[in-house]
Design brief:
Blueprint lengths: L1 H23 L17 H7 L1 H8 L3 E7 L9 E2 L2 E9 L2 H11 L5 E2 L13 E7 L2 E8 L4 E6 L2 E8 L3 H10 L4 H14 L1
Antiparallel strand pairs: 1-3, 1-5, 2-3, 4-8, 5-6, 6-7, 7-8
Helix pairs in contact: 2-3, 5-6
Length: about 190
């Protein structure tokens, strides 16, 4: 009788506990997070400025462009840099690593010293919010980026590790020989 009573009381209790545990791990009950949920670093507004930070962190549209490595290209310009061809629009989910990179001050050389290498643009990203645009033009030669706002180069910074930006760029342009070469160079350095 004790065994029967024990099984009548224990089994339903155990079943209830297990169903509760499984339901709490269900993907439908998990919260969603985006790059916007990361803690903001107040020094970034000093690095990029309030207006630039606001546009970069709250874009309504992000586009990518492949750039000519020198200013000799003809056609549309971003600042003084010629666009080789548009790559396309980026979904925020794809652009999240770029936004995360731009929002982490440890990725940048915060001193005013910049490597004395020619700025050869490779890829550019346009962040648009309403009618305002900020372009982030990246040169993997010297690991530099330039921010262009209102057709003026306003900030030039050197970044520490190009690997993340290279991986993002190769994902956008998988057949691009230069980007693949630069990414392979980074892989051989990190070995």
């Amino acid at each position: 009788m004790k065994k029967h009573l024990l099984s009548v009381l224990v089994l339903p209790t155990l079943a209830l506990c297990m169903s509760t545990c499984f339901s709490c791990k269900s993907p439908s009950n998990l919260p969603s997070f985006t790059y916007k949920d990361l803690p903001k670093d107040s020094t970034l507004n000093k690095l990029w400025g309030d207006s630039i930070s606001d546009i970069i962190n709250n874009p309504t549209l992000i586009r990518a462009y492949r750039m000519y490595p020198d200013s000799m290209g003809k056609g549309l310009l971003i600042g003084n840099y010629a666009i080789k061809h548009p790559i396309g629009k980026l979904e925020l989910t794809y652009a999240s690593p770029l936004l995360f990179f731009l929002n982490d001050k440890s990725n940048f050389n915060l001193s005013e010293d910049i490597a004395k290498t020619p700025f050869m643009p490779t890829i550019a990203f346009e962040f648009q919010r309403q009618k305002e645009n900020v372009f982030v033009v990246i040169s993997f030669n010297g690991n530099q980026l330039v921010l262009i706002y209102n057709d003026k180069e306003i900030i030039r910074k050197q970044f520490q590790n190009p690997r993340y930006l290279l991986r993002l760029s190769v994902g956008l342009q998988p057949q691009d020989e230069y980007l693949n070469y630069m990414l392979n160079q980074q892989k051989s350095i990190s070995k």
